[in-house]
# Entry
Amino acid sequence: MPRSGDSERPIADGAGAAMPWGIASCRPVTFRSVSDAGVGLAFAEGGRDVPFAIARVYYLWNLHPGLVRARHAHRELQQVYLAVNGSIDVHLRDDQGERTVTLDQPQHGLYLGPMVWRHIEARTPGAVLLVLASDIYRESDYFRDLDAYLAAATEHRRQPGQP
# Structure
């Protein structure tokens, strides 16, 4: 189990209401699972177990301790991270603070809403991170510079109606 929009446009859900963003949006996600003869099966459906329609799935494999990946934020993209093998630390940051979540069971994941700076580090050799994403790859959705992200997050927080 887990432990521990651009700056000009408000982040909103499909109904137009402001939705949580930054670290406040991050929360555990538990997939339904069954076990038979020691073999586990976890499953998820977009819009039911995952709070968005799944548009893209990708994974990183052969992660090892000492290797840092990600180091970015997304303006609008929502994601769910799952460590399907091994143990992975997900380091989260926004303009209000930092938090680390450890993923180490394949049926327990982490939802990341928009505007969350993140990087990942494997705790075990050969770890595999599966990512479910709410949209296809769009380079324009990325913040790849931490200072630019922090400035945009601070500006975004000042907008009326933002949590």
The chain has one helix and twelve strands. The longest strand covers residues 56-63. The CA atoms of residues 14 and 52 lie 10 Å apart.
